[in-house]
């Protein structure tokens, strides 16, 4: 009886991982084997955190410099995020092993939501950066840092758990 159970378990196959393209996950958008998306995401991450920091310093000091710094930081977070998003979307669409995993799509959806929030935060500040900080600007910045962490966590899982977007050739 135990032999029959072992045999039936051995016959179970994950249809997704059995797909011949499932393991094709090397980056297509890269410079010398280094994925562009991985290089670009550091900028929106850093600028999102800098925006929150500048908002907090403006709240603390009342110095208009920090409100202006937050305007520039969130603008760069959004613009660099768009560039990172374009390269990530191209990877998602071109690489079969990335496209086949549902975790990739989860990361994509959360990242699009983050970009929407960063763009809204920037657009809100363009009308008057000092008036925009309190209370809505700082709340959007805090939410943006939370979404950045959530998006980064999922992106990191794709790289570290699934080795997506990495080179298998050891170069």
UniProtKB/TrEMBL annotation:
The chain crosses the membrane at residues 38-60, 72-95, 107-126, 132-153. The keyword Transmembrane applies. The keyword Transmembrane helix applies. It comes from the Bacteria. Residues 33-167 form the DUF2231 domain. Keywords: Membrane, Transmembrane, Transmembrane helix. It holds the Pfam family DUF2231. This is DUF2231 domain-containing protein. It comes from Sphingomonas mucosissima. The lineage of its organism: Bacteria, Pseudomonadati, Pseudomonadota, Alphaproteobacteria, Sphingomonadales.
